[in-house]
């Protein structure tokens, strides 16, 4: 709680300018709801604010459930933690992580999923959203869930037209495969490219999917050569490198990105005339605390899909920096797996720090040593900010080895174009490769026989979230989406597209 108060709590909102918008912040939460949620035990822990910061803490104390330890057979590790979400890139944020959740979201007609007539999520009798994962969510995530339910249902229509003999189960399974692959592709060559905005990363992430020979070559000739030439997607067989597939605790830690969230959402009028740079008129601001859970879903019904998406698109998200963690998240109601509220409020900033320690994630310096990066020997190696250096020295008793990972990543000098730290980037790089390379549906089973010709074509012709938005809301995107990517601020000037690799172009 000392760390959260002295080093994390937002003093003044720092944004990412035009690089990353609130859709991008919602997208990574959308992905986390697909990938990670730790099994809890029934034992409660209580944290109390120390005297030095108690007056500055929204909660003087708070209770939460301990992460449950389970037996594991991995190497010499006797204990680990169980993930209650499916870690695969299987769209479980839309479809659910178990049979009960999967059944709950289906119509059982023509393979389709439930969705409201207004294009938003349906709700049950208690007002809870009906989607694959609704725990600790807000309307930015549920808007994306609704979009990909529409994508799934559109794929079902396309498959049924092409293959009229397909039954409900076949349509559902093939549409799910196709939708999940579209989501994985968008994350790989669209979201990540905006997060790590450099020419090198554009080339690298596209090579992960298409290989160095590029999309045109792969579309024409298929997967040729190994990973370098042909990319990870479409390899002849998956490769786990001898380790059962899992998402590591380090992966969980580097995806702690709550600082991306603003304090308020700026609601735009999509019926107004475009202003300079195609900016819609700002009508009101809504506190983010009012946009979570059931209250948020009610608010979204008033806002509507188009206004919500346009509003998020035109608003820059927060930067992953010191003193930029939303204060409203320090007094928030956590939820059960079914989306119902719990009785105890929590300080999420303090809880993020506690969870890394509880789950034995290495502190910043040891973490960097373990991934072959140079550790810091003094605070000045980490940052040039004198106020930050002074506060770090006070909080950690001038011992750099005690520095928490989350704080170190926020304080770290950023590589130009990177919205994240170099430390986090190394984990991103390793796991972005592993998630594709280990999955049979992106390697040996990534073909027309498994996806169907129509489904395979759908994946191969979808390049970005902008493509998906245009497919379902062409008037909205034509009118308001001016930027190259749907993840950068929508009124930004479009950037020239530079196909990669350029050295395979045919000479004029």
The main sheet comes to:
2 strands, antiparallel
Point out poorly predicted stretches. 497-508
Q: What is the helix content?
A: 40-55%
- What string, H for helix and E for strand, traces the elements in order? HHEEEEHHHHHHHHEEHHHHHHHHHHH
Class per helix and strand makeup? mainly alpha
Protein name: Peroxidase superfamily protein
Keywords: Dioxygenase, Fatty acid biosynthesis, Fatty acid metabolism, Heme, Iron, Lipid biosynthesis, Lipid metabolism, Metal-binding, Oxidoreductase, Oxylipin biosynthesis, Peroxidase
GO molecular function: heme binding; metal ion binding; oxidoreductase activity, acting on single donors with incorporation of molecular oxygen, incorporation of two atoms of oxygen; peroxidase activity
Binding site for heme b: 258
Describe what this molecule looks like in 3D.
The chain has 508 residues and is mainly alpha-helical. It is 42% helix and 7% strand. It contains 21 helices and six strands. α6 (168-195) packs antiparallel against α7. The longest helix has 28 residues, at 168-195. The protein is globular, with a radius of gyration of 23 Å. The model is unreliable at 497-508 (pLDDT under 50).
Write a brief structural summary.
42% of the residues lie in helices and 7% in strands. The protein contains 21 helices and 6 strands.
Strands, helices and their partners?
Layout: H1 2-8, H2 22-35, E1 40-48, E2 61-67, E3 69-71, E4 79-81, H3 92-95, H4 99-104, H5 139-162, H6 168-195, H7 199-210, H8 214-221, H9 227-230, H10 249-254, E5 264-269, E6 281-287, H11 293-303, H12 305-313, H13 348-358, H14 364-370, H15 386-395, H16 405-411, H17 422-437, H18 448-451, H19 453-461, H20 465-472, H21 474-480
Antiparallel strand pairs: 1-2, 3-4, 5-6
């Amino acid at each position: 709680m000392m760390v959260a108060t002295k080093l994390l709590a937002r003093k003044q909102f720092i944004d990412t300018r035009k690089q990353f918008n609130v859709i991008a912040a919602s997208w990574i939460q959308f992905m986390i709801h697909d990938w990670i949620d730790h099994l809890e035990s029934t034992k409660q822990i209580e944290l109390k604010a120390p005297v030095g910061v108690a007056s500055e803490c929204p909660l003087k104390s708070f209770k939460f459930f301990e992460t449950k330890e389970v037996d594991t057979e991995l190497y010499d590790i006797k204990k680990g933690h169980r993930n209650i979400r499916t870690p695969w890139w299987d769209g479980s944020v839309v479809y659910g992580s178990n049979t009960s959740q999967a059944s709950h979201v289906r119509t059982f007609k023509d393979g389709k999923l439930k969705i409201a007539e207004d294009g938003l999520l349906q709700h049950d009798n208690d007002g809870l959203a009906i989607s694959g994962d609704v725990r600790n969510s807000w309307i930015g995530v549920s808007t994306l869930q609704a979009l990909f339910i529409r994508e799934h249902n559109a794929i079902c229509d396309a498959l049924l037209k092409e293959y009229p003999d397909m039954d409900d189960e076949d349509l559902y399974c093939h549409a799910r495969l196709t939708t999940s692959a579209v989501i994985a592709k968008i994350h790989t060559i669209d979201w990540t490219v905006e997060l790590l905005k450099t020419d090198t990363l554009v080339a690298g992430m596209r090579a992960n999917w298409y290989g160095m020979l590029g999309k045109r070559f792969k579309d024409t000739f298929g997967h040729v050569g190994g990973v370098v030439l042909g990319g990870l997607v479409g390899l002849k067989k998956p490769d786990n490198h001898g380790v059962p597939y899992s998402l590591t605790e380090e992966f969980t830690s580097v995806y702690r990105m709550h600082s991306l969230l603003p304090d308020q959402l700026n609601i735009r009028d999509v019926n107004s005339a475009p202003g300079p740079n195609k900016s819609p008129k700002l009508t009101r601001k809504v506190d983010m605390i009012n946009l979570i859970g059931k209250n948020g879903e009610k608010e979204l019904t008033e806002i509507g899909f188009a206004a919500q998406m346009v509003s998020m698109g035109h608003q820059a998200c927060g930067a992953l920096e010191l003193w930029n963690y939303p204060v409203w998240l320090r007094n928030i109601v956590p939820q059960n797996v079914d989306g119902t509220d719990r009785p105890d409020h929590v300080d999420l900033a303090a809880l993020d720090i506690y969870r890394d320690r509880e789950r034995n994630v290495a502190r910043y310096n040891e973490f960097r040593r373990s991934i072959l990066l140079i550790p810091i020997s003094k605070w000045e190696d980490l940052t040039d900010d004198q106020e930050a250096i002074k506060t770090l020295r006070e909080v950690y008793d001038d011992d750099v080895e005690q520095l928490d990972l989350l704080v170190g990543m926020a304080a770290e000098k950023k590589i130009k174009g990177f919205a994240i730290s170099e430390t986090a980037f190394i984990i991103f790089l390793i796991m972005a490769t592993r998630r594709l390379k280990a999955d049979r549906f992106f390697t040996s089973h990534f073909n027309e026989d498994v996806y169907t010709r129509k489904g395979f074509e759908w994946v191969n012709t979808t390049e970005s979230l902008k493509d998906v938005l245009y497919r379902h809301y062409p008037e909205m995107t034509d009118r308001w989406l001016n930027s190259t990517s749907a993840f950068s601020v929508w009124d930004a000037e479009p950037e020239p597209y530079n196909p990669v690799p350029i050295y395979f172009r045919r000479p004029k």
